[in-house]
Design a protein that fits this description.
Layout: H1 14-24, H2 28-41, H3 43-48, H4 51-63, E1 68-71, E2 87-90, E3 96-107, E4 114-124, E5 130-140, E6 146-148, E7 162-173, E8 177-178, H5 184-195, H6 198-218, E9 222-223, E10 226-227, H7 232-259, H8 268-293, H9 295-298, H10 304-311, H11 321-348, H12 352-367, H13 387-411, H14 419-448, H15 453-456, H16 458-473, H17 478-485
Length: about 500
Amino acid sequence: MQIPEEYGGLGLSNTMYARLGEITSLDGSIAVTLAAHQAIGLKGILIAGTDEQKAKYLPKLASGEYIAAFCLTESGSGSDAASIQTRATLSEDGKYFLLNGSKVWISNGGLADIFTVFARTEVVDKDGKPKDKITAFIVERDFGGVTHGKPEDKLGIRGSNTCEVHFENTKVPIENVIGEVGGGFKIAMNILNSGRFSMGSASAGMIKKLIEMTAEYACTRKQFNKKLSEFGLIQEKFSFMAVKAYVMESMAYLTAGMMDRPGFPDCSVEAAMVKVFSSEGAWTCVSEALQILGGLGYMRDYPYERYLRDTRILLIFEGTNEILRLYIALTGMQYAGKILTEKIKEIRKGNVGVALEEFLSKFRDMMGRKVDYGLVGERGVVHPSLEASGQKLEENIHYFGTSVKGLLSRFGKTIVDEQLILKRVADIVINLYAMTAAISRASRSISIGLRNHDHEMQMKTWMTVLKKLQSKCWKREPIYVLTHWTGHSNYFTDSK
């Protein structure tokens, strides 16, 4: 899909890739097989390979003559990718590496001809001392010494191949190193970061199909002389699924659009946010669909229970949601911390202007300031009918910033150990990004008169209820309010 046309691929943009993801996701096993090949298996060659490597491997990977797999995880190394033990030792003549080790839970492991493998190599540091660093390799099965175990008996995505892969004295030519020797960890992270965004469109595609199938059942099944679709509690579940799908799409395509800009924009945090929101949204939506279907959804004679099994893996692979939450929060905290540190330095130097600015900012917050970032109003970018939502987004962003500043002032560098707080920070910023994407999309739809744009106005109701809730709580505990808003429409009707 994304291999350039010069190498026999389609050369699709990230947006086009996401669009196709909506279709391939209708079968979880096919989606994983394709993603293991394209999104991670060959992506290292695509983003960091030499011209010679691309010319040699990409044409056959594009045609399907070669299937690719991504080999990072080991039995003792999961989220802690830097702790892998597979080792590559340089030969005495310096022409090849001898690769030894085992990788686990490798998608396409039993089918692949080409493996992107990460292994420890000895590198001489700047100070002249030898040091172990991770290096990425292109390994062909034909190099010898490559074997795989039996296919894993999995809970879901059972139609995809997952197995252990073993390397025993596999000779890998020096020209098959991807990037620099010792630079493999960064390549691994770039590969994973670049593929996460597509989980948003894939999850949305799956949920839309599930809504279609479940709606057909709800419109024909009768209880108490009424169709299921006429009951308010059932309608609420469809509303929940529709909103989740809409927001997933909005986040995914906003992120894909940014990734398609010229140059190499770093959208790793946005992609991580899409992954967390979409994987958890997909899981809850499938659960709601099964609740509508009742006993029928639980039976293996029907496809619904397979959606439940297939969806559960989304919260685990390509970075567990727990790790990604820490990544999202700490990446943002790191940037905010630099700004705060500079201000503190200026104040300590006796810069009265900076100190006064900080004092006035806190005073305005206490008095209830009017936040204006230019989203709404005559010169704003949000459609007038969504002005209330835009204003609430501005307020949310401001008070989130205030909360982050307070946390950094309180904890300093030790914030890295406060995982429960970081989780709440990540949950807030994920939903701020979701609000941004949803308002942006709805505003554009109304402005250019897209068909069915009136349905997108439901977002306005979403934000209005939130505004009423927050008006009573913001000045006390902004983090509490946003945390209790995240993820569930049920919170809107909670008496708390």
